[in-house]
Each structure stands twice: as C-alpha cells, then as structure tokens.
C-alpha cells in the first residue's frame, strides 16, 4: 500500500495540467495512467485525424505554442509528442501502464486499487477523459450479423473496410470527417444526421476558432447557460483539421457524393429507418450557424475591426435531397459496414463512489465532484465552453487545484 | 418558480411560467411525466366512425374532463361515402397543425415574441394505389406532408423561422409523423 496526498487518474492534457498546478502548490501527487502519456490520443483515434483546433490553441499552462505553423492542425503523432514534452517539462510523476480497477471511500480519503498494487490518497482528480466509450443507439444490436459494425474508436483507415458502400450514423465532427474520408476512398456513403452543429472552417479571413475565442464564445461560463445539461450535450461542431483547412458540412459532403438522410431511428429485418425530420434539423443548424456568425459580426463592428478583416459572408443553406431516404434495405444497397459516430461518454465503472446520476453522469459543480476532495477535469463545457479543449484545461486545472488546496487546508485544521 | 418572482407579461396567452415550473417539478419525478392518452371509438355506418375523447392518465393519476369531445370521421362522396366528417388522414393534419401551433405560441411566449397571426396551410400527398392494393410498392400513408406558415409577429424573419424550427423540434405530432412507432392492434 502506497500513500500520496493526491492521485490523478489519467495522464492526458488534463492530468498533466493538474500535475503542474499541484506541483506549484507543493502538493505531493501521482498520476495513474493505464497506458502511456496521452493514451487516448495514441491508441483510440483514426490514422488521418488532426486536432480540430489550430496549433496556436495547442498551448498548455507554461507551454505556449512556439512552432512555425500557428494556423496548422496537429496530427495525432504531433499531439502525442506535444503531451510527452509537456509531461517532461512539468516533471509529472507518472505511474504508466497502471489501470485503476476500483476506488472506495475510506475514513481518511480514498483507497485506489490498481492492477499494480493499491494506493491511499486524501484527494482524487478524475482526468480520464470524456471519450472513453463510443455510444451506440440501443437498437444497434438489431443490425444483421453479417454487417460489420464499427465505432470511430475502432476505425483506423478506409482500407480496413470492405470495398462496398458504408452507412455512417451521426454527423458531428467524427461522423462528418469519416463520411468524407470513406467517400473519397471510393466507397459510397450514406450519412444519417440528427441535430448537428455547422460552422465554416474560416470566416472573414480567419479560422472560426479565432473568432469563437476572441468574441468570448469559448470563454462562456456554464453558470451563465440557460440549461446546463443541454449546453453540455451540444454535439461537436462539424469541423476537420486539415492542410489546407476546408469547411466540412453537409453541403461539402453532398458535393463529393455523400447521400444524407435523417436521424437513424431503428433497424428491422435488415432495413434501417430514418427520421423524416431532416429538413428541420438542417434548418436548425443553418439558423444557429447564422446566429453565431451574427454574433461574431457584431463583435467585429464593436471592436472597430471592419475594414481590417474580410467582409461579412453568409453560406448557402444546407441543400436537401429531393426525396430524402426514409428507409434503407442494407442488403439491397450493398452496404457491408455501419459506423456508429453517435457520440462518446466517459467510463466510470471503476469509480465505486456514490457520485453518479441515474443516467451515469458524474454529479459535480464545475468540476468539484459531490464527494469530499474529489475533482474532475476535461468534460465538455465543465466550467466553460472550452473545458474539453487542450487550450481550455489549464484554467480549469488552476481553479480546481486552488479548491483542492483549500480543501486540504480545511481538512487538516479540522483534524488538528 | 417561486411566488416572489415577478410574473412575466403574457403576450400570446400561454402560461410559460407554469410550463417551466412543471418542467422543473417533473424532472425530479419521472413517473409523473408518464402520460397515456386515450380515445374510444365506435363504428357508426358505412365508413363513418365516431371517436370520443375524455379521460387520460398523467401526473400519477387518471383525469376526467367536464365534457367529452367527439370527432366524426367519414369519407367524401367521391369515395361513395356519406361525408359526415373529415377523413381520418385529414384529422392527422389537424393534429399536426394543432401541435405546431401550440408549439409556436409557447416558444414565442418564452422568447418574448408577440404573435399577431399564425396561419397554416397543410397539404399531404397520397397515392391511392397503396390503400387500394394496386401497387405493393406504394405505401398506404402520406408520401409527403407540407406545412406552410404565414406568421405576423413582432420579430425578425430569422427569429420567426427559429421559432417555427424549435416548435417542430419539440412537437409530439411532428415526431409521430416523421419517426416510426410500434403499434399493436388486438381484438378482445
């Protein structure tokens, strides 16, 4: 049994940023990592993926981006190298290849069982990421057994798929990127889309991320959201990091031959049924995009930047097929693979603490978990809209480290 | 909603405060949110049926209304029928219009938009080859439904479109029409 003041579960950007903050406060700690630093980036992403945020946003506390290509997008290899470098810079005390199996509450804190021995700690930071499990609709099990069923976490490259048409379910960032890559590989893609978020890659001459950061959209706080749960569940923006960076939306996908359909609702006898609400989910996405662009335009006006940046632009509404698909007989369409790009969720099966809602979500207030001395980092819109970004985790780590420091001080005083 | 909140000015006759209050209350009591809607029906003569609607279940109990609503459905003379009521498929359009209209008024109320008039024209296409069994590839039901709203309100065109989009997103009848539902019909 080893003892430490704080255990951090996970050595990705969140765990490393927290390690730096704890070191700065002289709080002894250890990071338990099931693999190596940046394990999810290393092992659970497809080959061609690049970060959706430009390089200038790949900055961590104490390590600004100093490369020569601030507008480029890092490959997974580059992202892993970045986090490896950061781990070395902050001298994070990492126990690699150590999987947490169970965490229990004990009198003086928490007992953490791993596959390499057990630990006792007073405080705990859950930095194991928001995307441990690829969600699939419950009815995905109805798919005929001879159809290959993959998630973006299993998918690596188109050549692993049979040379036949593919159904991609879900048109957020992952689904839209995979639909493009697979269609361009010569396999016809049908893309089922429910509600989605659309944005141009570049706007008025700059990356959309520049404007979302500059005009305060990313800095927006969860306590100011009308409905926190809804805000946290907003799907990822249809974006792709590439060289050159191009807009990825239902129009650009249809331009290369992808067929779009409504949200996939079920499967019966080998036939997938799609919602007939495609027109409305596209209208909602167009309206929301235009509202965001309007907000950016207003900010540019306010700052007196008109003239210094390119003029206002509006993009064509999402084109709808003349007769959107309502059902698809997979065998008749020759579809051999279905990819479920229907979201991700964290895995808390090892967390033996009564801190989960009936829906399996962690009960927390802006990262302060509903158990003494327990914190979480890196969840979507946890404190601000950029909480789950590499660029957003630093501020959250600082705020929670300061809370953790005060918690330890109070607990010591109470004990004394 | 607590009693010390200043009630908002009602613009469209929708009690949004009550609805928002119900939302908060139901979120912590999921069983109360489970509603069952009911109707009873009796065949009259020919292709004329009268459906009566009164009771429903929700908020953990059965409810009765003071009056029973009756909806007659029949078919027009060109179907060699007595035309004592709208066709069942037209009643479906009424359901869609009623649901979207309620949604538009509610969303507008919630967004502080005063509505002056909301008019809709609804059309549904149907190929009789389906119900007549002439072509097995033609479905019985609608091949397409179109709703055209004309709305006069104190809001921009874009805001009005956003209200209509949101009302579809939250509409029960829209969902019933666009998404599959398991339907079980039994005989006692």
From TrEMBL, chain A:
Keywords: Oxidoreductase. SUPFAM superfamilies: FAD/NAD(P)-binding domain (SSF51905), Nucleotide-binding domain (SSF51971). GO terms for molecular function: flavin adenine dinucleotide binding; monooxygenase activity. It comes from the Bacteria. PANTHER family: FLAVIN-BINDING MONOOXYGENASE-LIKE PROTEIN (AFU_ORTHOLOGUE AFUA_4G09220), FLAVIN-CONTAINING MONOOXYGENASE. This is Pyridine nucleotide-disulfide oxidoreductase. It comes from Croceibacterium salegens.
TrEMBL record, chain B:
It comes from the Bacteria. InterPro entries: KH_dom-like_a/b (IPR015946), OsmC/Ohr_fam (IPR003718), OsmC/Ohr_hydroprdx_reductase (IPR052924), OsmC/Ohrsf (IPR036102). This is OsmC family peroxiredoxin. It comes from Croceibacterium salegens.
């Amino acid at each position: 049994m080893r003892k430490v003041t704080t255990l951090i579960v996970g050595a990705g950007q969140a765990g490393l940023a927290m390690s730096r903050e704890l070191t700065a406060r002289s709080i002894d700690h250890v990071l338990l990592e099931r693999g190596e630093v940046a394990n999810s980036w290393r092992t659970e992403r497809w080959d061609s993926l690049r970060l959706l945020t430009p390089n200038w946003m790949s900055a961590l506390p104490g390590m600004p981006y100093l490369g020569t290509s601030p507008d480029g997008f890092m490959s997974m290899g580059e992202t892993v190298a970045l986090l490896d470098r950061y781990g070395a810079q902050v001298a994070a005390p990492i126990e690699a290849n150590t999987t947490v199996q169970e965490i229990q509450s004990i009198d003086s804190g928490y007992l953490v069982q791993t596959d390499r021995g057990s630990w006792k700690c007073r405080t705990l930071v859950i930095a194991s990421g928001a995307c441990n499990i690829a969600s699939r609709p419950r009815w995905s099990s109805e798919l005929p057994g001879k159809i290959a069923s993959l998630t973006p976490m299993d998918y690596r490259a188109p050549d692993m798929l049979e040379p036949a048409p593919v159904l991609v379910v879900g048109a957020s960032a992952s689904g839209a990127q995979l639909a493009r890559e697979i269609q361009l590989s010569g396999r016809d893609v049908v893309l089922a889309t429910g509600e989605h978020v659309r944005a141009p890659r570049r706007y008025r001459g700059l990356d959309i991320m520049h404007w979302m950061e500059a005009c305060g959209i990313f800095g927006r706080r969860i306590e100011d959201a009308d409905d926190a749960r809804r805000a946290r569940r907003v799907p990822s923006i249809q974006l792709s990091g590439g060289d050159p960076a191009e807009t990825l939306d239902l129009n650009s996908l249809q331009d290369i031959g992808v067929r779009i359909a409504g949200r996939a609702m079920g499967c019966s006898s080998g036939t997938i049924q799609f919602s007939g609400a495609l027109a409305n989910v596209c209208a909602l996405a167009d309206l929301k995009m235009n509202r965001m662009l309007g907000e950016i335009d207003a900010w540019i006006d306010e700052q007196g930047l008109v003239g210094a940046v390119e003029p206002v632009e509006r993009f064509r509404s999402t084109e709808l097929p003349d007769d959107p698909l309502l059902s698809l007989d997979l065998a008749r369409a020759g579809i051999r693979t279905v990819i479920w790009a229907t979201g991700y969720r964290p895995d808390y099966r090892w967390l033996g603490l009564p801190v989960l809602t009936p829906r399996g979500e962690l009960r927390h207030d802006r990262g302060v978990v509903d158990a003494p001395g327990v914190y979480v980092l890196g969840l979507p819109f946890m404190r601000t809209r950029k909480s789950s970004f590499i660029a957003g985790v630093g501020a959250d780590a600082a705020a929670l480290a300061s809370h953790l420091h005060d918690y330890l001080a109070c607990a010591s005083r109470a004990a004394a | 909603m607590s009693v010390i909140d200043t009630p908002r000015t009602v613009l469209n006759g929708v009690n949004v405060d009550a609805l928002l209050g119900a939302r908060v209350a139901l979120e912590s009591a999921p069983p109360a949110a489970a509603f069952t809607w009911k109707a009873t029906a009796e065949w009259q003569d020919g292709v004329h049926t009268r459906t009566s609607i009164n009771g429903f279940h929700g908020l953990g109990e059965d409810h009765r209304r003071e009056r029973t609503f009756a909806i007659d459905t029949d078919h027009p003379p060109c179907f060699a029928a007595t035309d004592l009521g709208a066709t069942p498929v037209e009643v479906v359009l009424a359901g869609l219009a009623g649901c979207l209209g309620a949604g538009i008024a509610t969303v507008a109320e919630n967004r502080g938009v005063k509505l002056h008039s909301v008019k809709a024209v609804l059309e549904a296409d149907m190929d009789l080859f389906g119900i007549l069994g002439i072509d097995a590839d033609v479905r019985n039901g609608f091949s397409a439904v179109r709703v055209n709203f004309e709305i006069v309100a104190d809001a921009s065109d874009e805001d009005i479109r956003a209200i209509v989009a949101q009302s579809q997103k939250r509409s029960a009848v829209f969902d019933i029409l666009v998404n599959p539902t398991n339907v079980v019909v039994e005989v006692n």
